[in-house]
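Q: What does the predicted 3D structure of DNA-directed RNA polymerase subunit omega look like?
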Amino acid sequence: MILYPSVDKLLEHVNSRYSLVMLAAKRAHELDAGALPLLNEYKSDKSVGKALEEVEAGKLKIKGED
């Protein structure tokens, strides 16, 4: 279960839960492969948690989505 960031807050940045899952998974793979972080500090140690924190911070978005 995701406690932080909350799903409600994340859905303010992404249109659907499916899109959120796909975005977070793709970004987590990028982070695992050595991509540079988009935030200075993360609360989560895991790459999926880091990806979700980036979404909440508005640093990670789906291309073409408002």
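A (community wiki): The structure tokens above were generated from the sequence. The radius of gyration is 11 Å. The chain has a mean pLDDT of 90.
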